[in-house]
Amino acid sequence: MSGVIEIDGLRKTFHSVRRGRRVAVDGFDLRVEAGQVHGFLGPNGSGKTTTLRALLGLVRADEGRMSVLGADAPDHLARVAGRVGAIVESPQFFGNFTGYRTLRLLALAGGVPVARVDEVLEEVGLGDRGHERVKGYSLGMKQRLAVASALLKRPELLILDEPANGLDPAGIREMRDLMRGLAANGVTVLLSSHILAEIQLICDHVTIISRGRRVAAGPVEQVLAGFDRAECLVRADDLARAEELLLAAGLTVTGHGDHLVVGGVPDPVTVSRTLGEQGIWVRELTPLRPDLESVFLELTGTTPHPGVPRQPDGSAPHPGPAVIDLDDVRGVDA
């Protein structure tokens, strides 16, 4: 194993009296290369957090092989623990301690210079709140404190589970800038988040897990390209006539009341030329490109809740392949 993180064939089953046997992770694979900001995505209950916990030795896997910075995990994880920063699930702190005292104790326990505490508090935006008690912190501030604790050791690898949880839009943007800055300085980041628009902005690679199995992996742009139907939204002054002309030109056309969705359009010029030559003037011509959210919903079979952005024409995501693995299909290391 040569990646910063490698997981091969991970399997974990839980047993309980109430729920019986439940397979949380089922033959899951993950590869994170040095310098990547790698998004790790999955719906609730998909096995995402279980995978991170197994990787960090917090639960024992049933099967599979794992490696972190070249050390077999979890058995030899102690060899590289000083080079890894991580937060998994909701952070817990002593409420009567200040943020500064919390990090100072962690620094002393980890052999980190105490001067580093002020640095990380500034990095996460708590420089002026470090001497307040944690019990007075908001959820977002506690999340910032957790990220600060993961940064104390100046890690080579940072593993973050929902670091933007509880943050307001400004805080999310600051977290995005922080992740980008860390990556620019050579830190490898494995980032789990439900804010898919942020993942698309921050990450260069992505792995999607559903029902314990990997359903997509690869560079973000190539994962999205696998779901690009070369479609356009068209509004014109005579939709009925426009539909006839576009169908005659060999394109696929679906009517949606006040607009058309036209498929098989490698270049939108094809639409405007076809209609313009017949005196049909186009009022709107918008390429419909997939985003990470629509791809995620399609791959995981998740029903979008009200308010989740959909395609520009308001339709649900199109059906697509159940599995897309760019490592195998395109020969891309992800």
Automatic annotation (TrEMBL):
Gene3D superfamilies: P-loop containing nucleotide triphosphate hydrolases (3.40.50.300)
Assigned protein family: Belongs to the ABC transporter superfamily.
The species this protein was found in: Micromonospora sonchi
Record key words, sorted: ATP-binding, Nucleotide-binding, Transport
Chain positions covered by the region annotation Disordered: 299-334
Protein name: Multidrug ABC transporter ATP-binding protein
Domain ABC transporter positions: 5-236
GO molecular function, a single term: ATP hydrolysis activity
InterPro entries found in the cross-reference section: AAA+_ATPase (IPR003593), ABC_transporter-like_ATP-bd (IPR003439), ABC_transporter-like_CS (IPR017871), P-loop_NTPase (IPR027417)
